[in-house]
Amino acid sequence: MKKILTLLTFAALATGCSTSKGVESTNWLGKKVTMISVAPEGGKVTATREFEKGLNLEGFEQLYPQTKYNPETVLVEYSFDRNRAKDLHADDFYKEELFMEIPANAFKKQYKDTELEQVKLVYGKHCYCKGEAGYSKITQGTLKLDHSEKHTKVKLMFKAPHSSVIENVEFIVE
């Protein structure tokens, strides 16, 4: 009986002290990505981070945000691509993406609402959904970042300007 009680106590401690688990994959850059939040059904999610890249939002009225060289920043991207139907259909595409520019130096910080402009958080929606497709800056939500040379951990809850399937994401990218 004493052995069983000890074993149960050890199992409870091991389970309670475990770190966040998630689904691991590799992005197109060959880096490991761990999706902690549940991915939307019927699609694929991925994330990347690129050092010495930033966002040029001066011409934001253009079709898409442009990237630029910036040795002081890291560009983190997250995207959800819905699977296409087996039959070929016109306008059968749906994609949502997030871009954020963060400082290259290691840090751990939380941003809320208007503070999100410090990371140039941009949301994009691409679909045949009139009035909803396009890019917009995100100014409502909470973003927790833990960034180092080794990895970037992102936990983001935001309010998109239109309906969205990725308003609550958490991931780690190498």
Describe the structure.
There is one protein chain. The chain is mostly beta strands. Helices cover 9% and strands 49% of the residues. The chain is built from 1 helix and 11 strands, in the order αβββββββββββ. The protein has one helix at 2-16; strands spanning 23-26, 32-35, 43-56, 66-82, 94-103, 107-112, 122-127, 134-137, 141-147, 152-158, 168-173. The strands form 2 sheets. A 6-stranded antiparallel β-sheet has the order 1-2-11-10-9-6, with no helix packed on it. The longest helix is centred in the first third of the chain and has 15 residues, at 2-16. The chain is globular, with a radius of gyration of 19 Å. The termini are far apart. The model is unreliable at 1-19 (pLDDT under 50).
Number of helices: 1
Going across the biggest sheet, name each strand in turn: 1-2-11-10-9-6
How much helicity do the residues have? under 10%
* H-E order: HEEEEEEEEEEE
Cα shape: globular
CA-based gyration radius: 19 Å
Task: State which percent range the strand residues make up.
Answer: over 45%
Entry summary:
It contains one helix and eleven strands; from the N terminus they run αβββββββββββ. The protein is mainly beta.
